[in-house]
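mind reviewing this fold:
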Amino acid sequence: MKRYSIFSLARNALDYHRNWQKAWRSPDPKPSYDAVIVGGGGHGLGTAYYLAKECGLRNIAVLEKGWLGGGNTGRNTTIIRANYLQDESTGIYKHALDLWDGLSQELNFNVMYSKRGVLHLAHNQHDLKELGRRHNANRMMDNDLVFMNPEQIKAFVPIINISPDLRYPILGGSLQRRAGIARHDAVAWGYARAADALGVDIIQNCEVTGFRIEAGQMRGVETNRGFIGAPKVGCVAAGHSSALAAMAGMRLPIECHPLQALVSEPIKPILDTVIMSNTVHVYVSQSDKGELVMGAGIDAYNGYGQRGSIMPIEHLLAAAMELYPIFSRLRLMRNWGGIVDICPDASPLITKTPVKGLYFNCGWGTGGFKSTPGSAHVFAHTVAKDEPHALAAPFRLERFVGGDLVDENLAAAVAH
């Protein structure tokens, strides 16, 4: 059996996987569907999956202008947490965290969810008060957080520097133990395979170029592969959502900025948690391959380019060297950028629009990956029922008219 397995592996390697069973189909688009989801990342594929599994719709297509998971799903630092400030945010992110718990079993695909905890550091009195406020708010929402003093943090993360002589000394921290990381591409692949098994058509290299709207009703989408009819269209295209909205004659209250991340060369395991610092601004975890994965703040300028300037990288590395002196001799292996779409209150849009049958799920800023299953689940309900899920109702578009904002600029970590 062992010799056969080695031979089979070699044979499939030499034929470039041509004879491997495909994880999902690659069909040509049908003339029409009951619903079309624009965007083939985790949120879009998850929305299609829940539409098919829980909402009774099976004639569904996911349209992706590139390849699955090639946008923000594959361009983030994979952090999962639910320790936001406002009750509305805690509700949606805690819902996502609950779904993350069983997602591998749900999809029958290992998304490599590692509940290693996320630790937020406090470096001054303002940080302590902000973390304390957020800590208490989460405890009232039955969210698991533990407050730690510097000595407890040092015991939990031996490589960290807690010297009082630091420019920004560590005064304490808030730990969410159930938080952690997952494998970003595995999330996209798992949802794609599960949705395909339920009959969803996943169509790559199919760019939406416009909408066909008649008397305020959605009729379908124009694409580079022809017109596709659909009475319901859900747009889940992250940083490109504003461009899609413009095609429908709308201007969404979002801005798009580059956000960069980087990885070091792989090393032996030294960090078994995720550490975030908003004041110094660096967040770091260690991947299963041994790379240190780091990120920080957005570039200040608006843009749709998946790249950024050198300044955020310099600030990120300076912060990392101060907090973790052991990192100083590591080599940077690669960096990349994604596009974050940010609303003025740093909370998302999960909403109907003035066009009947057109829905948007966007504006997640740096919180998109962590929200994936919860966002997809409530958005599927919104699309299918034409009314918001209870957890999604606070994130409707109308909040910017009535002033019912969900202010998460501090907890979302996109404003630093």
Observations:
- The mean pLDDT is 92.
- The domain at 115-180+255-342 is CATH 3.30.9.10 (D-Amino Acid Oxidase; Chain A, domain 2).
